[in-house]
TrEMBL record:
This is HPr family phosphocarrier protein. It comes from Komagataeibacter oboediens. Belongs to the HPr family. The keyword Cytoplasm applies. It is found in: Cytoplasm. Its main location: cytoplasm. Residues 10-97 form the HPr domain. One of its GO terms (biological process) is phosphoenolpyruvate-dependent sugar phosphotransferase system. InterPro entries: HPr (IPR050399), HPr-like (IPR000032), HPr-like_sf (IPR035895), PTS_HPr_His_P_site (IPR001020). Keywords: Cytoplasm, Phosphotransferase system. One of its GO terms (cellular component) is cytoplasm. CDD domains: PTS-HPr_like. The keyword Cytoplasm applies. It comes from the Bacteria.
């Protein structure tokens, strides 16, 4: 009897976009830079659309504006650490001054 492959654990958090311009090019680039520091899969969902957290263009296509919520889902060996770092970045307004 074949054993089912173990599904990797995923971790998820809903985060509000707080910076003035939302998930624009610079914010998306910062998100990808942080995501790439970890051995983790990263997906971001907004308004029913899910994109890779490793894609600047994908993140921009979400069109997430200030006051809207995105769901970040991570998986893999460093999934929990990636989720903490990414939720911190988004919660801090991508470290923008506006």
């Amino acid at each position: 009897m074949a054993e089912a492959a173990a599904q990797p654990a995923s971790h998820q958090a809903d985060v509000e976009i707080v910076n003035q311009r939302g998930l624009h090019a610079r914010a998306a680039a910062k998100f990808v830079t942080v995501a790439e520091k970890f051995d983790a899969g990263v997906d971001v969902t907004h308004a029913g659309m899910t994109v890779s957290g490793h894609s600047i263009m994908g993140l921009m296509m979400l069109g997430a504006g200030r006051g809207e919520t995105v769901t970040i889902t991570t998986s893999g060996p460093q999934g929990p650490q990636a989720l903490r770092a990414l939720t911190r970045l988004v919660g801090a307004g991508f470290d923008e001054d506006d």
